Amino acid sequence: MLMRTDPFREFDRLAQQVLGSTARPSAMTMDAYRSGDEFVVHFDLPGVDPETIDLDIERNVLSVRAERRSAAPEDAELIVAERPTGSFSRQLFLGDTLDTERIDASYDAGVLTLRIPVAEQAKPRRIQIAGGDSGRRQLGSAT
Fold first, then answer.
1. Which of 73, 72, 70, 119 is nearest to 94 (CA)?
2. Which CATH architecture describes the domain 9-70+79-122?
């Protein structure tokens, strides 16, 4: 249901340490689980202004983008800069069993939470069995 690995994540981390920048946006960490009739995803985005978060869905691909700016003024001399800044992105490949028309998104305490309901047609349902011979055609009889 989700892309679980990012083969370029370690390469990007190493390039950022050596070059001081990344060639592409950094991936954001996340947790995902199913709870009852909804799929829940939490993205860690501490220090991100909610106005910079962008959610798009095209077909069954959900794209999340956000930007964290440095808190230091431009003319400040940085002594230590370990908190990543810049663009962050992640794509989720959603299954057909999710209702992408009713995604709920909230942002609280640096965590973006998406709640995606399971589609009605994907929920388990009970099938009624008709009793007796009513509605059945008997083989071999002339009608």
1. 119
2. Sandwich (2.60)
